[in-house]
Amino acid sequence: MKNIGFFNRVYEVVKRIPKGKVASYGAVAAMAGNPRAARAVGWALHVNPDPEHIPCYRVVTAGGRVSRAFAFGGENIQRELLMRDGIKFDDGGCVKPEFFWKIT
Q1: 3-state secondary structure at position 81
Q2: How much of the chain is in helix, strand and coil states, percent to nearest 5?
Q3: Which residues, including other chains, have CB under 8 Å from residue 11's CB and lie 6 or more apart?
Q4: Is the pLDDT of residue 73 over 80?
Q5: Active-site residue among 14, 37, 44, 56?
Q6: Is 56 one of the catalytic residues?
Q7: DSSP label at residue 64
């Protein structure tokens, strides 16, 4: 399966997202070597083999929305996990911009 290498790169990127920060699917795709593969990032996270060590809940849409299809309990669980990390949301339910990981 050719996606295995990409999926593993996605997992390595997601492990690097610090507590208290989020990254978009597109940013993770770019860091994993394929900036056009944001949807594939979603698939990789959906089959996350180690959610305890790969914090897929820290990946959100480019606009800061949580996933409606969050694989490990739904969007309310993702939001709760992010809030436990200290993430703040605006009145529209989006992660505030200052909580996006500044990738260096």
Answers
A1: helix
A2: 45, 10, 50
A3: 44, 48, 49, 50, 54
A4: no
A5: 56
A6: yes
A7: S
